[in-house]
Write a structure and sequence with these properties.
Helix 3 crosses helix 4. The chain has 164 residues and is an alpha+beta fold. 15% of the residues are buried. The protein folds into two domains: 36 residues, no CATH class; 98 residues, Alpha-D-Glucose-1,6-Bisphosphate, Chain A, domain 4. The protein starts with a helix and ends in a 7-residue tail after the last helix.
């Protein structure tokens, strides 16, 4: 009697799994049998060949120019999809009692002056400790101008083609 009950349970389970959806774009999930879902890396990079691809949520020229300019300082965190770059603390010269840390935000998909923001944090050494002394707004504006200038140079050279 017991083998018959086990056989009936197996047959009923097999009957339930007969209608799994088929994948349209690829193999999909082996575990669930569902079709492939989500966004592929080629779609994000604009290589999918579709006109309506997702693309990066930020301007490629501003992003490339930001990396070019900010890479002169050691980078702590780079988030391409969030459009942020954070540097490590950096002393311009080792004898200085001041160090800076920059946070850069690419805010727009278009190459515009208000599409980039740089915040420069400043610390001063007091004895053996570093104390926060605010932000340097002027240096932040200078960095923004450098990045915008570099982005215009990249656009003029035709290095990156826009797909927006």
């Amino acid at each position: 009697m017991r083998p018959f009950a086990i056989l009936m349970v197996l047959i009923s389970l097999a009957a339930c799994s007969g209608s799994t959806p088929t994948a349209e774009k690829g193999p999909g999930s082996i575990v669930t049998g569902r079709a492939e879902q989500g966004v592929s890396l080629s779609d994000l990079a604009g290589l999918g060949g579709k006109n309506n691809s997702v693309g990066l949520p930020i301007n490629a020229l501003l992003w490339r120019a930001s990396l070019d300019i900010m890479s002169t300082i050691p980078l702590d965190d780079v988030d391409t999809f969030g459009g942020t770059i954070v540097t490590e603390w950096y002393q311009v010269n080792k004898t200085s009692d001041e160090r800076i840390k920059m946070t850069l935000f690419v805010l727009d998909r278009e190459l515009r002056a208000d599409g980039i923001r740089v915040v420069v944090y400043v610390q001063k050494r007091i004895g053996n400790n570093w104390k926060d002394s605010g932000t340097d707004i002027e240096m932040g504006k200078q960095m923004e101008e450098l990045i915008l200038t570099r982005a215009r140079e990249i656009r003029a050279s035709g290095y990156i083609e826009m797909t927006n």
